[in-house]
# Entry
Amino acid sequence: MKSIVSIQDLSKTYDSGFRALKSINLDIKDGEIFALLGPNGAGKTTLISIICGIVTASQGTVTVNGFDNITAYRQTRELIGLVPQELTLGAFETVWNTIRFSRGLFGKKKDNTYLEQLLKDLSLFDKKDSELRELSGGMKRRVLIAKALSHQPKIIFLDEPTAGVDVELRKDMWNIVRRLRDSGVTIILTTHYIEEAEEIADRIGIISNGELLLVEDKRTLMHNLGKKQLIIELKESVSSLQQELTDYDLVLSEEGDQLIYTYDSMSDNAGITDLLQTIKMVGLELKDLHINKSSLEDIFVDLVKEDQMRTERVEVKV
Amino acid sequence: MNIQGIKVIYYQEMLRAWETLFQTLASPVISTCLYFIVFGSAIGSRIQSIDGVSYGLFIVPGLTMLSLLTQSIANASFGIFFPKFTGSIYEIHSAPISFFEIIIGFVGAAASKSLIIGIVILITASFFVDLQIAHPIWMATFLILTCISFSLFGFIIGLWANDFEKLQVIPLLVITPLVFLGGSFYSINMLPPFWQTVTLFNPVVYLISGFRWSFFEVSDVSVGVSLAVILGFLFVCIAIVGWMFKTGYRVKQ
# Structure
């Protein structure tokens, strides 16, 4: 699949001296849903803002559909729709006027049929003549989406689209995202709700302290970094592991009533049969068995924690 | 060129004035009427004519300029400051529209509003005095150039200001004194020689003088100099805006 957004060696240092991005390289594939995960202040919004032309990069290049986003900004920007994180809307315009404004601003001729359908799809049609200041937070979020879609973009950036949004709207939002993807739109989103990225994204990037720690296909990521643990509950506690069991990657719980076996979920030979036979052989009786599978959240927390510890170590050395 | 983009910015700004039409027009019209009642009739009746022009008539160009300058700055600065304040400016920054096109939209709308206000003030004045325009084309030229250059100046203020206080400070502390001391209500020939020289450093003197000449053919300075000053001011504003765009000063992070 060809890449629609290509980021090379992108860095950003703000006037305050804060290094928000450090030499980012990233390719977004045409038609995919890419989720960018990272803690607060990791550089997610800065990255999106540079691609969209709101923030100027200190170094590096961004190309969108083959066009440079600085020298050919008209070609790149008309392809992009941005839904910002904050509810940044005017106050006195009506919903209808504001989406007409957005469409025109992106150089598109007015198309009332499309805009009316867009408002209907976002359950905003009955609010079309309301002033923006009269709307609830959830409605404002929908208006921001309508504005971003008003010029029929090929790429949509959703910056924390579900932050502070109720369950119903969140579900609606993900339905909209799926619909957009089905229509061929590339979607790049940042989110704190890792389980949603897990559910909806095709690929995942993890960013921390301005560095991209990893970019991976979601399934590969889950396979490579996802650990499985077999928890074996014993009928009677033991104080230590028998000699025969020490060959396995086994950990005895503090209470001595559980054996925790960590294994590679991708491996053909996980060794579970052997282990169970050995347990039977040494005379341990089983009470229960269950499997823990690490979620994307565990992977994310591990990676970010690792990165933070590394940063701290560097700081201590300096 | 993103013509649609320019159109929607212009339309949105004009719509804002249309929705508050009463405030937009009532305020300059009422203040002009008050000036005419106080200066034109009450005080003016006891003042001799200046350069052969009755006092009530003499103050018309200065009064028009007073409103024009303050309205141009207020409209243009608020027009760009408010999206910055609400954060909705992100959309303009991320749109396929050049800075030049953004300026045409915002400044064009602010200048159009000021022009309408200027015309309304002149019509209002004509109810108080017998207004005759000696050089209509020159009058229109001065009117339009002033609207554009001071709207551009207001746009710069709106970009520069990062709070409401800064938005107000230049119009209040710089523009109003310059207009009042720029010969709106008197001819600078009435001042002592020293202050006449000082006042020549006030650019508004040239605007009012040139504008007044287009009505009565009387002026404090030659009309060519007036035109040169306003064109010079326009180019300075264009240069500042160009610099802001190039360096991203107060425009982009």
Chain A has a mean pLDDT of 86. The CA atoms of residues 123 and 310 of chain A lie 47 Å apart. Chain A has two domains: 3-222, 227-293.
